[in-house]
Write a structure and sequence with these properties.
- The structure is a single chain.
- The chain contains 11 helices and 2 strands, in the order ααααααβααααβα.
- The chain has a two-stranded antiparallel ribbon with strand order 1-2.
- The protein starts with 8 loop residues before the first helix and ends in a 6-residue tail after the last helix.
- The protein is mainly alpha-helical.
- The radius of gyration is 22 Å and the shape is flat.
- Helices cover about 70% and strands about 0% of the residues.
């Protein structure tokens, strides 16, 4: 059994002063470990979307009526609060699991050799989004599930998924300047696709804010728009995204594009078809909770694949990165 080295007073001081640098000096993760760490934060970002949807769809949004405690007298849910309190508090606990996943991604990225500043910054970006979204989630509870704050909460989680997706992608690439694999016209088409997907997600939050699933059994304010009209606009945007995806696949085939953009586009098209089928079925069956939950999961997966299509349009070869200087290590948020 390998002997654990003694930790000196100087080591303890160094660990307290800059724990990330202390760990990085003593641990070099394999590239596969860094990639798995980035993937774990992405998976947890999707899981938090699903469990957040479960809170709303089970009417448990105010299961813990205050924040940061569950009640004025208890940090956790109590037996008297029933299943709604357990569901809401369980979702809050998952935020700590998400923080742990993001923390692992930051530590793994910071410890990788050679040092890659961009990966560490992407990890810290996730951390600050999680922290700000946790505060926003507390505001959602304190204002009684105001639909505008609920929508902002979901949009912030979508931003978290975007950053986590980029970090995961970058763990499999080098640090050289990106080399485009397709022409400018194809890139512009993909940016139109990304913009349409963003609009689709934003309008989807309005559908949620105006729809019947308010998140609690009590009277909860809804957005003052016609739900049917907004749902139809959402469907139109979905068809625009599908059409743009099919057009992109056709163009990529016509210009004999590399395999990766073609594969990602084909996968996105299949995801959109499945998501559209779920959307129409839930619309015509009075929004059963299980289908709404699946639709939320599909929204997160769709967003990830839209970004993967965008990121597949270029490649980066590996270069040797510089070791970080002491000034950069002194500020963790910019490491």
């Amino acid at each position: 059994m390998e002997r654990v080295p003694n930790v000196t007073r100087a080591d303890a001081v160094a660990a307290l002063r800059n724990p990330l640098a202390f760990i990085a000096e003593r641990w070099t993760p394999a590239p596969r470990t860094v990639r798995r760490a980035a993937l774990s934060s992405l998976v947890m970002s999707v899981i938090i979307v699903v469990t957040g949807g479960a809170v709303r769809l089970t009417g448990s949004g105010l299961g813990c009526p205050t924040w940061p405690k569950c009640t004025d007298d208890s940090l956790t849910s109590t037996a008297e609060m029933g299943v709604h309190g357990a569901i809401e508090f369980g979702n809050r606990l998952l935020t700590y699991v998400l923080c742990a996943a993001v923390g692992w991604a930051i530590v793994a990225a910071r410890s990788q050799k050679p040092y890659r500043r961009d990966l560490t910054r992407l990890g810290w970006a996730q951390f600050w989004i999680v922290m700000s979204n946790a505060v926003l989630g507390g505001i959602v509870v304190l204002v009684g599930l105001n639909p505008y704050t609920v929508a902002a909460h979901f949009v912030a989680t979508s931003a978290l998924i975007a950053v986590a997706t980029v970090m995961w992608q970058r763990t499999g690439e080098g640090d050289a300047a990106p080399r485009p694999l397709v022409g400018r016209s194809v890139q512009q088409l993909v940016w139109f696709l990304v913009a349409a997907a963003v609009l689709l997600i934003l309008v989807g939050t309005v559908v949620t804010g105006a729809g019947p699933h308010a998140g609690d059994s009590s009277e909860v304010e809804r957005m003052p728009v016609d739900w049917e009209t907004v749902s139809k606009l959402h469907a139109v945007l979905a068809w625009i995204v599908v059409t743009l995806t099919f057009a992109l696949w056709f163009v990529l085939k016509a210009v004999d594009a590399p395999r990766d953009p073609l594969s990602r586009t084909r996968e996105l098209f299949l995801i959109l078809l499945a998501q559209g089928a779920i959307g129409y079925v839930q619309y015509f069956t009075d929004l059963p909770e299980i289908l709404v939950g699946l639709h939320m999961l599909g929204s997160a997966v769709m967003w990830i694949w839209v970004l993967r299509v965008l990121l597949s349009l270029r490649e980066r070869s590996r270069t040797v990165a510089a070791v970080p200087d002491s000034a950069a290590e002194a500020t963790p948020a910019t490491a």
